[in-house]
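[#protein-structures] MJ: dropping ATPase AAA here for a structure pass
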Amino acid sequence: MKDQDKPTVLLEYHLKKLKLPTILREYAAMAKVCSQDRSDYMTYLLRLTERELLDREKRAAERRIKQAAFPVIKTMDTFDFKAQPSINQQLVRELMRGEYIAKKENVLLIGNSGTGKTHLASAMAFAACAQGSKVKFYSATALVTELMECREERRLQRLQKQLQRLHLLVIDELGYVPFSKIGAQMLFEVVGRAYEQQSLMITTNLPFQQWTEVFGSERLTGALLDRLTHRCHIIEANGESYRLRQAKRRSQAKPKTN
Ligand code: ADP
Ligand code: MG
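AK: finished. structure tokens for ATPase AAA:
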């Protein structure tokens, strides 16, 4: 080894040990830039640490998005509000800022199938990840199945703790499948624990009057709705299914063959 290589070898070893991968990657190129600019030592260090910090935040956001387990990534820029005028756009835009999460408020998206509820929930939850919140996206059925499995295997407490660590828990498509009695009770417990501790975001095709059909007990449903809606933003989507409309458009656009 040549003598002049020694410090860089040691430096790179230190940067690795200190877990500063961006500085490790960029220190040499940045040194050239800074000497051309005649920047001082402090500016050099500032630029490097700034990049490390930015990269670190980016990596953390990517990790949160991965952990949120979105079925598909949807964002607001692909949502066409004109196609669904019943949706309160102003409220959606406000919720995109994520202040409801700090206030531990809930979001409920209610409406027919295909009106964009899952799309909006995904986009809002995605934004929350980017803003630093811990999020997890579940379909109602998957969540109940996981709760039941964990209960059978005596891992329920662990799952409950994991869920409680989240800032935002998304429960998609509540109401398509009725729950067993135990399933309903376990979901009720999730909502109960979340109350004023974390935000829930729920999408459903069920008007409130019909929730009893899915949860079984009227008393249970009453208590659940009470907690859920106490501090809650409600987005209603009453229009036609987006998919259906597009399918209709496509078939209208096709020339008749007979
Ligand atoms: P829901 O959950 O209400 O049943 P989805 O959010 O799953 O509906 O929407 C169905 C499909 O149509 C998705 O691919 C979604 O991205 C798309 N979609 C629905 N509404 C809109 C809209 N207003 N603008 C753009 N895409 C939409
Ligand atoms: Mg949906």
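MJ: nice. The domain at 76-245 is CATH 3.40.50.300 (Rossmann fold).
AK: one more thing. The mean pLDDT is 92.
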